[in-house]
Amino acid sequence: MKWTANIAIAAACLFAGKTAFCGEVPLVFGPLIYDQLPAPFSPTMFRMRDFDRDGFPDLLIAGRDPDDRLMTRRGLGDGHFAELQLLTASGFIDWLELGDLDADGKDDIVAAWRGDVPRLVCYRGIGPGLFEEATVLADVVVAGVGRDPQSVALGDYDQDGDLDVAVCNYIGQSIDVFSNRGALVFERTARVRLGTFLGGVGFPRIVAPGDMDGDGDLDLVVNEMGGSRIAVLLNQGGRFVGAREYRVPQIGAERPGLAGMELIDVDGDGDLDAICPALLLETTQKVLAFMNDGTGALNERLVGDGSPTGYEFCVHLADFDGDGDLDAVSGAALPGTIAVGRRTSASAFSFEIDSALQFGQLIRHLDAADVDGDCDLDIIGIDGPGRTLFSRKNNTPQQGCGGLAGFVEPAPAPAKRVQTARLLARGAVLSEAVLREPVPRADRNNDGVFDAADVAIWLAEMSQVVPVAIPVKAGGAQ
User: Fold this and answer.
1) For 133, 404, 440, 477, which has the most beta carbons within 10 A of its beta carbon?
2) Cα–Cα distance between 478 and 476 in angstroms, integer?
3) Measured distance CA(59)–CA(55) in Å, rounded
4) Which one-letter DSSP state was computed for residue 475?
5) How far is it, in rounded angstroms, from Cα 457 to Cα 140?
6) Rg for the chain (alpha carbons), in Å?
7) Alpha-helix residue ranges (DSSP H) falling in 262-421
């Protein structure tokens, strides 16, 4: 998300008691503030909006739930979130987006139901933070192998003025594009296969929209968890006919697994780069930047420091100290670790890890917003197995203003160009037995070797076991 400091915001910073600070100082965050979500709902990710227009972010939360629920939570302004609405989901939802599909001026929820009959669905917006139950837009398994949809991406891919939907099929190893024909009627107009040259299975998980080659239309970027690759699908006049794929760099003796991805302009050159958590078998984890040369090619790859422990599973970049460059917060699994890294150079992809807090079992999704209206960016995240939604308030002295006075919604996806897309992080619902089990040395992607990509797949496979209760007091603070 892009945050713009201006005179009004600076005034709000002064009013909030923030003062300008010159020179590098460590990033400082307060203790965890958390709320427990109802069992057996296991959250996978969330999106933020200010549904009730009170200046604080509210959350729309996707999850894996045998009781078939999708939920919204209202931000209270103190780091806590209260129940707002419960909706029905006939299948697990690993990913959702908000956008106005029917052009009525209200945001709708778009999601893919996983299950025996996977479907693309829409929950129509009917008021501030209120949605109708789902309307089925399409059967994802049509004329091919579009199995196990896990993520969706909204954008006007055919440039006809309305929002279309791209779906990432995990087992089907493909991307489907469904074009909006109006009145919530969608037609599949493209299917692109991924990782066709691999001996194993690529397991694509996240698809994100962005104009990667600067030609004014929306391209698609995908992470392949099993293939340890990033794929770029360039839009050619509303058609996607193939993918360019870029392998992760070798780090030491390893090639890391890619559990997540976000698109953001890392170096300030006006184009989108791809940021990924680099899951390694070694203790110290890394984050990766696939740098865009302006044509959509991601040949340059940079490595930065991530979590000092666990398996890196998600990363989000934001300006936490207001100095104009992007810092990092990353989340790990087994143990769940929240690591905060300060960008030490605007020209280099390097981070000083200022803190690493262990919490829960698997940090599945992280984002940044001003949860308390004090004009800086706080951390919001989820621990999937613990069914825990948490925030950490930013206490870092700000160089100017790194955030906004109150929450400002991200701009809706433009019809012609999307500037950024954020991280999807997935994890696992882990049983107590699984938590005691060492990582099994199995070649899960069938590429002939055991490596970190197999560990990432192993973590994702744990979605079908019974959740274990985590001793967290609901609504408490640590």
Assistant:
1) 404
2) 7
3) 13
4) T
5) 22
6) 20
7) none
Separation of alpha carbons 217 and 198, rounded Å: 29
Beta-bridged to residue 169, according to DSSP, are 149, 174
- The partner residues of 62 in beta bridges, in order of sequence, read 45
Question: pLDDT confidence of 218, banded at 50, 70, 90?
Answer: very high
Of the candidates 114, 102, 188, 110, which has an alpha carbon nearest to the alpha carbon of residue 154? 110
pLDDT higher than threshold 60 for residue 263 = yes
> What are 4's two structure tokens?
């713009």
427 or 243, which is more confident?
243
Element (H, E) at 320: none
Instruction: Judge whether 362 and 336 are in contact, CB under 8 Å.
Output: yes
List the one residue out of 4, 15, 209 whose CA is nearest residue 99: 209
Give the three-class secondary structure for 346: coil
Looking at residue 464, what is its pLDDT?
45
Name the token pair of 402: 């790194």
- What are the distances in angstroms from CA 207 to CA 10, 41, 232? 36, 24, 10
Is there a contact between 171 and 115 (Cβ–Cβ < 8 Å)? Answer: no
- Do 430 and 361 touch, CB atoms closer than 8 A? yes
Residues 58 and 50: beta-carbon distance below 8 Å: yes
How far apart (Å, rounded) are the C-alpha atoms in residues 200 and 193?
14
Query: Which token pair is 375?
Result: 């004009």
> What is the 8-class DSSP label of residue 250?
P
Would you tell me how many other CB atoms lie within 10 Å of the CB of residue 112? 30
Element (H, E) at 9: helix 7-15
- Of residues 397, 310, 329, the one with CA closest to residue 367: 329
Binning pLDDT at 50, 70 and 90, where does residue 141 land? low
Grouping H, G, I as helix, E, B as strand and the rest as coil, residue 306 is coil
d(CA 414, CA 181): 18
Q: How would you class 281 by CB atoms within 10 Å of its CB: exposed for 0-12, middle for 13-18, buried for 19 or more?
A: middle
CA distances from 56 to 105, 198, 316, 377, 411 (A): 21, 46, 20, 12, 16
Asked if residue 232 has pLDDT above 90, the reply is yes
User: Which residues, 6+ apart, have CB-to-CB distance to 420 below 8 Å?
Assistant: 1, 2, 210, 262, 263, 264, 265, 272
